[in-house]
Amino acid sequence: MITTARSGKNTLKALQYLYGPGRRNEHTDPHLVASWDGFAPDPGRDPEATLAQLRDVLDLHVIRYGQPVKKHVYHRMVRADPSDRNLSDEEWADIARRIVAATGIAPDCDPDGCRWIAVHHGDNHIHILATVVRADLTQARLRGDQYRAETELTEIERQYRLKDLSDTRTPEYRAAIPKRAKAAELRKAERLGQEETGRARLRTGVRRALAGAATEEEFLARLTMQGIQFEVRRLPSGDAKGYTFALPTGDPGGPVWFSGSQLAADLTLPKIHGRFAIGVDEPAPSRPGDQGRSVAVRYRASTTTDRAVRTIDDEARAGQVAAVVGGAIEVLDTLALTSPVLSRKEINQAARALEFTAVARTRAARTEVRAMRSAARELLYGGPAGGSGEEGTAAATVLSSLVLLAIVIAKWHAAQGNQRQAEAAHAAATHLRAAYGRHAGRPIALLDTRGRQLPEPVRERQETAVRQALPADQAARVLAEDGWAALAATLAEAEQAGHDPQALLAQAAGQRELASADSPAAVLTWRIRRDVGLPAPAPKVTAQDRRTSAALFRSTTKRTTSSPAAAVTPPPALPVPDRVRRTR
Fold first, then answer.
1. What pLDDT band is residue 219 in, cutting at 50, 70 and 90?
2. C or N terminus of the chain, fewer CB within 10 Å?
3. What single string gives the DSSP state of each residue in 178-243?
4. What are phi and psi of 406, to 5 degrees?
5. 341, 343, 347, 353 alpha-carbon torsion, rounded to 10°
């Protein structure tokens, strides 16, 4: 459950909102479920009751107070999680009474508490409306009411077996996650037909400018390239104090500026300068005609990600996790910039989900930050990649590593009791699986076909290698998977190239325990192909393919030679993989 509160100075206007349709027609069947004395008039169910009558009884002590109260209206919303069961009016009434008692509106066993009502709407939430003057004509002491309300909600969730959102209410969680858009920003985005608010789009742009940047000058230059406006605020001494950013806009009022801290906790000037101080490893300069650079950098990013995965277990220090999360976001942002359209959106969504797994108020491990930021920088300088062939296989490999990274981040947060962060990491893994499937589907299918066509002695030899290289439980799981045939084909291909399958399996499995992986067979397949440098899976051109192509050419030539004016243009030959061309 979540709860927020606001104050106001017009009781009738607040009641009109509660009993009206809402801003987007979200109010259905508004009616009272509880009040300070149980006898307040209910305009929602009593046709003779009016909003003015309800206003008058709520304002009674405010009028008797005899002097102006700046904001005498207290308005608190309490909402259940969408996945929770629908609560009855009686249950909401009990929750309302407990919340007004906890906040100080109407403490238990206090006959002089404030007057209040609770209005229930159809989408599993209530609004508590109160006036803050007590019956003894003193004002209620509400300082710290939010924390008391959240503490009470934690107990309510436990008793009613509702979804536990207590970690979202801690100061540490709120300090770590991206700053949420306000209601006015959400309405503006909806009015303009935009999927994201300006704040969210600006945050993504700033992160992409920062990903892999070595210096402040490079970071600011990338902002300019994206059209993002920025200012460096300075102290009277001339030292930099902070950044402000804005998206270009055609609004007469000009752009809306956000400080780094209004976007996310790690986008403040000190945190950004901290990344520059850690530094990055510069990628090797590209050479003319350097083909396959984007492939190589993706394989290296996969290796770096696998190393990062090894640093995280249930006992890992928060600083290590913070470093890996921050670095993974940079890697994903550069992948989103350089990946083909078919996976770009899912990769970006994974990056945005991973922002909600950040660890607050801890110093990130420098080694892990530098390694991941260097991988991001190399991806950026490696340039764009396609979605098929060697580039698609390399993309599938690095995405497979990132899926596993998201899973182990989720496991770490779950072990710490951070439910919301664990759910965000699982969401990132879901998006990454979707992106992975768009690159891996065809090569895995080709490898699966090859594996099923292997001679029986070859298949048995690879199966023996799996049983000897892996623990018994892991070997049994790998051999029972649908992906086993693709792994067998990869092992046979590596063996033909002169490698020992058992040694390759031991090396690939030793890079990280496989229990966390969705498909250990697929993880092993991609790691072995990356480590050995096997070419991308491609359909073999058989003798029958060549005979069909020749027959098609002859028939086309026969038809076109009957007309002297017709140019004889042979049809394009069937595609021949590079590996086949080299062996002819």
1. very high
2. C
3. PPPPPHHHHHHHHHTT-SS-HHHHHHHHHHHHHTT--SHHHHHHHHHHHT-EEEEEE-TTS-EEEE
4. -60, -40
5. 110
Is 432 in contact with 410 (CB distance < 8 Å)?
no
At residue 161, the pLDDT reads 82
Q: For residue 173, which amino acid is it?
A: Y
Kindly state the average pLDDT of the residues 100-119. 93
Q: Phi first, then psi: give them for residue 557, nearest 5 degrees.
A: -65, -40
Q: State the helix-helix crossing angle for 318-338 and 198-210, rounded to 10 degrees.
A: 100
When pLDDT is cut at 50, 70 and 90, the band that residue 279 belongs to is: confident
Contact 407, 516 (CB under 8 A): yes
H/E element holding 257?
strand 257-259
CB 391 within 8 A of CB 335: no
Angle between the N-to-C axes of helices 318-338 and 293-310, in degrees from 0 to 180, rounded to the nearest 10: 160
Residue 481 has pLDDT above 80, yes or no: yes
In this predicted structure, the answer to whether residue 243 has a pLDDT above a threshold of 60 is: yes
Token pair, residue 82, equals 């969408």
Across the range 549-578, mean pLDDT stands at: 36
CA 369 to chain centre: 19
| Token pair 């325990």: residue | 513
Q: What are phi and psi of 67, to 5 degrees?
A: -145, 155
The residue to which tokens 């078919």 are assigned: 342
**HEC letters along 459-504:** HHHHHHHHHHHCCHHHHHHHHHCCCHHHHHHHHHHHHHCCCCHHHH
Residues 79-89 pLDDT 10s? 888 778 888 99
Confidence of residue 558 (pLDDT cuts 50, 70, 90): very low
Structure confidence at residue 513 (pLDDT): 59
Is CATH 3.30.930 correct for 2-169?
yes
